[in-house]
Amino acid sequence: MAESSQRKKVVVVGAGWAGLGATYHLAKQGYDVTLLEAGYYPGGLVAGWRTSGGRAVEAGIHGFWYPYKNIFSLINELGINPFTNWTRSSQYSPAGLEVESPIFQDLPRLPTPLGTFVYTYFKRLPLIDRLSALPLLYAVIDFDNSDEAWRRYDFVTARELFKDFGVSARLYRESFEPMLLVGLFAPGEQCSAAATLGMLYFFILAHQPDFDVVWCRGTIGEKIFRPWVERIEKAGGNLLANKRVTDVIVDSNNQATGVVCGDEVFDADAVIFAVGITGMKKIISSSAHLQSHEQFRNVTNLGAIDVLATRLWFDRKINIPRPSNACFGFDETTGWTFFDLNALHDEYKNEPGTVVEVDFYHANQFIPLENKEIVPIVQRYLAHCIPQFQTAKVIDSSVIRLPQAVTHFTPGSYRYMLPARTCLKNVFMSGDWIINRHGSWSQEKAYVTGLEAANLAISYLGEGNLANILPVEADEPHIQLARTVNRAARYVGKSILPDFWLP
């Protein structure tokens, strides 16, 4: 390997899935890679840490779904075993249990979306309401994740989408909006229809097993990121925490030559940003060089959503039928989830009491409250789902406020999102809010865009092998045929009708 002074230098900003993915691959290709993380530890919001009392906490629980091919491939490469088995999940309202999901891959495979429809057990929702979703299949087919499809659906709200396609009010209220509150983290009137269709298709509708999920058997920071960081450092990557980026130095050729962190400057032949919307907006606000480009100024039009992550330790064992649970109907604009950590996390398997993680999304109204106000609310909500929580005593708790923490896919936001390749020749973007055509979402998308950004840097600098990115599973034959016919119909329609007839 060449001396460090002779190797091309790449600076990666942000140490989440995207940043670690880009850094790892570039380090393996022999680049002099420096990863800058504003926080105290690699991993960003999903890493997790320990309290002063030694208890493990994290900024919300994150699942790993069946279609996360690239993350599962990484886990195999690292030679680690951080995951539970596939788990079943439930959904609750204030009235009690509403929905139970099986392990879909264990059941006879039916053409999509029949498997999801047939095998999901709805306790109260009438069949006639479920059938009202059938016309929505046209929108699922019409939305093919292309740029044209995003622009066609992005200005429509999810609420309008479901209403226009005849979804019953009850199905929307008891099924689709709860999915939005824990999938896109906002109520339907605040979510882009394009993002809604993309998210629902990837996680639920593309193939029968897609909703199957495993969980990390501890914090992601300890179980995944720690061994991953060790591998990155062994490959030659340099990870620096507490480095908040304030500017990018750009020369007269429209190329970045360095990244500024306060009084420090890190020279760069290429730069990869791998931060969330809130972090990127902070960097742009302090960078005259980035502000001079409309593409980066437009990022300030994007928004993010507040999250509240709580962890409660109870004095007794409580029977929680399923380890992961989503809840709706407790607050009009807030979704929440709760997890049985005795069943999911190794360190709590022999805990004498019960440990529960409860996460709230679009938690604006909870963020200002004091911990002593939040904990009783959480316990009361849990008791609506499982009555045993009502008489149990909370012996310890953790409350983590995460303002502006996750991407908000608002209607009309697509036009302001950044592509991986920017107007600066050697500055590349990654993260779950970056425009790409892979089709994945959440952690898988963040990791994939990190690999894509690394590939762009390699192509630009002309050294090393490109990362192998696994595609999402191909559409099933009947979906492929329907989309082919639909595209042909749109093409013919556009040739004979004015544009305003075909948005």
From TrEMBL:
Gene Ontology molecular function, alphabetical: oxidoreductase activity
InterPro entries: Amino_oxidase, FAD/NAD-bd_sf, Zeta_carotene_desat/Oxidored
Domain of life: Bacteria
Segments forming domain Amine oxidase: 18-456
Span of the signal peptide: none
A Pfam cross-reference name: Amino_oxidase
Protein name in the entry: Phytoene desaturase
Organism whose genome encodes this protein: Chlorogloeopsis fritschii PCC 6912
